[in-house]
Structures are given as structure tokens and as C-alpha cells.
Write a structure and sequence with these properties.
Elements lengths: L2 E4 L1 H17 L3 H16 L9 E2 L11 E5 L2 E8 L2 E9 L4 H16 L1
Parallel strand pairs: 1-5
Antiparallel strand pairs: 2-3, 3-4, 4-5
Helix pairs in contact: 1-2
């Protein structure tokens, strides 16, 4: 069984999703249901860490990212040994490639 580890950014992504639905769309029940649905879907990665598609299968990008469809959202993650690292949880209509790889560029610059 794999262990799921959420990045700070992925936690913030889920919080912002819930806040947007609850506050902007004025639907706190839908917000709770959406966040719970995303978490339930991600929890399945404990038993099936490779169930998401490779990002490189839809974009010509050399990456170990996989993604899992969670309703209107996509959970981007990497599998390393017995760990599943959830890096981001983004809406499917977002320019998620720019978001993901701007994060990687920042990380590379910090490592220097």
C-alpha cells in the first residue's frame, strides 16, 4: 500500500477550490462535496498508485507526472517507491501545464 503525501500547494489548491465554490458560487454543500470527492478519488492511489495517466501520454513532455481525473479537477502526482506525492490539484480548464512547469522552473532555480 502506497503512502500519499500532499504538497503545501496541493492543500492550498483544495482549500481555494472549496472557498471558491462556497463563497463565490454561494454553495457550501457543493464545496464540501467537491473537496470530499477529490480526496476520495486520490485515496484510491493508496492501492493503485499507477492508475492515473502519464502526463507525457497527452503532451510531448519528459516528466514523471501522472494525473488523475477528479470530476472537473486534475490531481497531478508522482510515484516514488512506496510514496505518492500529490503536487497540485487544478481545475481542468486551467492552463495546468504552465502552472506545473512554472513550479518546476522555480524549484530548479532554488536548487541552483
Amino acid at each position: 500500500m502506497a503512502r500519499i503525501v500532499y504538497s503545501d500547494e496541493s492543500i492550498l489548491d483544495m482549500e481555494q477550490t472549496g472557498d471558491y465554490i462556497a463563497e463565490k458560487l454561494k454553495n457550501p454543500i457543493a464545496a464540501l462535496n467537491t473537496v470530499n470527492s477529490i480526496q476520495d478519488r486520490i485515496d484510491k492511489l493508496e492501492d493503485f498508485p499507477l492508475m492515473g495517466a502519464r502526463l507525457s501520454s497527452i503532451f510531448a513532455i519528459d516528466t514523471d507526472y501522472r494525473f488523475l481525473v477528479c470530476g472537473n479537477h486534475l490531481a497531478f502526482y508522482r510515484v516514488q517507491g512506496d510514496y505518492v506525492y500529490i503536487d497540485r490539484i487544478l481545475h481542468g480548464k486551467q492552463d495546468y501545464i504552465s502552472v506545473l512547469f512554472s513550479d518546476l522552473q522555480k524549484d530548479a532555480a532554488l536548487k541552483g
